[in-house]
Amino acid sequence: MNETTAWSLPGIPFLLALLAGFVGAVFVFVDGASSRDPAGPLAGMLLFGLLIFLSKGFFQVHPNQGKVMQLFGRYSGTVRHPGLRWTNPFYAKRMLSLRVRNFESSRLKVNDNDGNPIEIAAVVVWQVVDTAEAVFQVEDYENFVQIQSESALREMATSYPYDSHDTGAPSLRSHGKEVNQHLRDEIQERLGKAGVNVVEARITHLAYAQEIAQAMLQRQQAGAIIAARTRIVEGAVSMVEMALEQLSVRGVVNLDEERKAAMVSNLLVVLCGERGTQPVVNAGTLHH
To answer: Does the pTM of the predicted model rise above 0.85?
Structure first.
């Protein structure tokens, strides 16, 4: 079932016509009563009742709002034109907001692709684009949006690890744009049948579950320490190599292999040590 446009007329001209009809009904009633003709008051009352019944066809449509029309249970169309409108008085009318809305999920506890328990939450920006599907395809489209969004979030979270750990694979923490697009597509696939368009979906909260948070923090700290040490060693080796090369090129001192090894050891200790080194002054010669 897809949305169609319901039949309606501009309300202001029809309102003026009804007011003129009410004036005419009063005139017929009064004229019949003054002439003591029983048909005159009866005609005035019937005309007055008909005009009251026709006035039930008035309704208002606000901007970014739609009125779903049903005639004896059958869908007759939707009116989106804002302002005062008039339509068949027998129509049953239901208002639907077409404004952009957002929904923030609760913090869900799920397992990521590696099996680690994590906490995750997301915000979904959505709007109704097909009023017929929103009303007649699902029982409660707002509740449907909430439940299906959280279900899609759970499904998406199990497709990625929390962290790639330097493997380069997509993860929840490092590939935010890709993950958010996947989440949006997952939600849109579920909400399309309800006439809802997902404008945006993005993760708002992501963390390890409390029971493993401390262990994962230690793992991240260890990884950071290893990465820092690796960078320090690479820089120290480059500096030692440069020092030996400069000493050789400038002819400052000629070192044999044994003393080169000793110099390399001392420089690496100085460059790679966590604490400041204490110099030792050699008062003797280089040879024992």
So the answer is: no
